[in-house]
Amino acid sequence: MNIDFKRISILSLLLAGLVLFNACNEDGEMDGGDPPAMPPASSMSPDFNYFDEGGDESGRVDVVNSWVYAATNVTVYSAILGSTLIVPVTAYKVALTQDVTFDADLGLWIWAYDVNVGAHGEFAVKLTAEIQGPDVIWTGSISKAGVFEDFVWFEGTSAINGESGSWTLYESFANPTPWLSAEWEKSDVDGKANVTFTVEKEGNSLNSSISYTASATGDFNRSVVIVDTHADNTITVDWHSVEKNGRVKSAAHFQDDAFHCWDSQLHDVDC
Hints:
alpha+beta, 14-stranded antiparallel beta sheet, 5 helices, 14 strands
């Protein structure tokens, strides 16, 4: 059998050129294909607006115990995301609305933009995503002019299909130690998402956590479970995001293991 090595070599070169051509964009640069699926906003900032409702302070006098107790405890933990860690949380939420580019030399997807975080000022953000097999490595670097540059304020990993992952959020440029970690999952098919935030900062609340679950169906389509290690107490809160009714359970507060309910007007009712 005679093998024409010259023809095979030419064919190999043509195929290699075709692969390179398809991997390049119109400017002749290497293209990373489609960017990875970004973790959902809820993986860093669940929607706790429900607990801001209930009217003004005078109106809340009539709301009595159950909803107020639930709201108070959820607010304490969500305040970590809404105040102490507002810069990295806001920076990531804004990233979800930004355009992305691919750096062929670094092999990174890059979101670069500025963000204003109210009284905290203006920040320059660079979020990168590196695909490593079935995983995506996320790094959120934040700079503040004249103060610090490229501080990694948050980082994490996610499955390339965007259905699960984790985050680590650091306290601040002045104290770059882990403050909070997050483990999250979501399923568009089942219409369900959940995330658990765990306090990593040394102190009375170390290893305390708040878990948030949202679903598309059920008598209660939202749920929060708070584990308070300092008080050795677990608080479970379920509610309906549209109907507004809900229930709360806390052995330390109510001195029983039963749920305590409220109606759509946030008034206490029998469960």
